[in-house]
């Protein structure tokens, strides 16, 4: 079932559509997204989510008398600052005079920062009841290493007044960008990436409201990493999943469709040691997992590659961290198919207990879910590989659209 999301036609609607599609696919919550005009938004004739802009979203449900505004801006601010906590006793610099800047000032005061420096053109006419908040002119902006710097809006200044401090040209002048001050630069090239993170923090609460469940941090990090780090035109693609879901057969077919190289992690382990998977596991499980984690990262250095992993490759925290900024497909199969019988050859965990797969599903589902960019149920290896080929090509187009639009809007 697809939940309807209506986007108001605007300068940034295509960007928001691309972001929402990726959020929906990564979180395994399908969205039916449509572009609508202003009249449709005034009337709100159908149930669904109405996205006027990233920070103005309404949810309409038939059981409720009227559409409710989503408090996503406040949630986004809290999550945005989570990356930099604790802020207690730190120096914070905020450039901006909009409602959003004031919201950040309030949150910083609640966290008891040492000082909150607010830079805006009309600083002389402003005074805050909290003496931690200091209104200043942009010429006084001198952050030190470790300070938190937040650029919300132009604060009434002209572009040329900000360019010296905020990177090169208009690319720096974007909304709600955040970064730690570094010795080599102020915000510079980090601005576009930070704007993407801010937009994601505004849109993720929509999915959480629809699912009635907070999105876990590993999944949020996975979404951010895809937009910042993963270039699907050449990045390796990892297949993960339970035993006997078809990682090897689907992986080989997918590699042929995409004209990629194909690599099997289990076979790489056997080639490295000269032992079977069962022999390796029986000798020393810790050494087995150590080698598995090491070869996973070695294979991941290859470009344009399909890599089938062992079903336990995601058990190690360092392996899950490594897969965070990689494109990962969670392959699955209906449990009733697996109940009919699974070969235990080179599957040491299943020896004498082929019914263990159902237990492994419950035990490992969170790990598979939290490191995956998409999930596909395998009913037929060729059809599944073809579906994955189309999905990956569509994802490439979405990534290109998002980065093109964020660059256009930042000019």
List keywords for this structure.
single chain, Rossmann fold, 15 helices, 17% strand
Describe it for me?
The chain has 411 residues and is of the alpha/beta class. The chain folds into three domains: 3-70 and 199-224, 3-Layer(aba) Sandwich (Rossmann fold), CATH 3.40.50; 75-188, NAD(P)-binding Rossmann-like Domain (Rossmann fold); 230-399, 3-Layer(aba) Sandwich (Rossmann fold), CATH 3.40.50. It is built from 15 helices and 15 strands. The chain has helices spanning 13-26, 38-43, 72-82, 99-110, 159-163, 190-211, 217-228, 247-258, 265-273, 277-283, 285-299, 317-323, 335-339, 356-371, 381-410, and strands at residues 3-8, 31-36, 48-53, 56-60, 68-69, 91-95, 115-119, 133-136, 148-151, 177-180, 237-240, 261-264, 305-308, 327-332, 374-377. α1 links the parallel β1 (3-8) and β2 (31-36). It starts with a strand and ends with a helix.
């Amino acid at each position: 079932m697809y939940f309807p999301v209506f986007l108001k036609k605007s300068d940034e609607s295509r960007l928001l559509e691309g972001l929402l599609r990726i959020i929906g696919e990564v979180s395994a919550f399908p969205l039916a997204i449509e572009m609508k005009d202003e009249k449709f938004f005034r009337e709100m004739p159908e149930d669904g989510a109405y996205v006027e802009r990233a920070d103005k979203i309404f949810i309409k449900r038939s059981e409720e008398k009227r559409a409710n505004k989503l408090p996503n801006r406040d949630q986004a601010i809290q999550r945005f600052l989570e990356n930099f906590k604790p802020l207690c006793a730190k120096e914070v610099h905020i450039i901006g005079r909009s409602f959003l800047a004031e919201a950040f000032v309030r949150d910083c005061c609640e966290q008891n920062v040492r000082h909150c420096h607010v830079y805006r053109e009309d600083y002389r006419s402003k005074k805050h009841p909290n003496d931690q908040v200091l209104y200043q002119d942009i010429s006084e902006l001198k952050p030190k290493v470790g300070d938190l710097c937040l650029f919300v809006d132009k604060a009434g200044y002209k572009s040329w007044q900000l360019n010296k401090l905020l990177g090169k040209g208009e690319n720096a002048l974007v909304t709600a960008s955040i970064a730690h001050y570094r010795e080599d630069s102020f915000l510079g090239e980090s601005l576009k990436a930070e704007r993407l993170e801010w937009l994601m923090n505004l849109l993720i609460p929509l999915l959480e409201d629809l699912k009635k469940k907070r999105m876990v941090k590993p999944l949020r990090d996975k979404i951010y990493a895809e937009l910042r780090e993963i270039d699907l035109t050449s990045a390796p693609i990892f297949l993960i999943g339970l035993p006997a879901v078809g990682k090897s057969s689907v992986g080989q077919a997918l590699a042929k469709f995409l004209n990629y190289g194909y690599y099997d992690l289990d076979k790489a382990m056997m080639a490295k040691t000269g032992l079977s998977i069962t022999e390796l596991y029986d000798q020393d499980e810790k050494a087995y997992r150590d080698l598995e984690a090491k070869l996973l990262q070695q294979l991941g250095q290859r470009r344009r590659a399909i890599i089938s992993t062992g079903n336990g490759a995601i058990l190690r925290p360092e392996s899950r961290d490594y897969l965070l900024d990689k494109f990962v497909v969670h392959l699955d199969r209906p449990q009733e198919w697996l109940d009919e019988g699974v070969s235990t050859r080179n599957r040491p965990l299943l020896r004498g207990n082929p019914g263990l797969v159902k237990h492994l599903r419950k035990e490992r589902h969170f790990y598979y879910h939290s490191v995956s960019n998409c999930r596909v149920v395998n009913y037929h290896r060729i059809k599944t590989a073809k579906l994955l080929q189309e999905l990956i090509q569509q994802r490439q187009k979405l990534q290109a659209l998002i980065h093109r639009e964020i660059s256009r809007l930042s000019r």
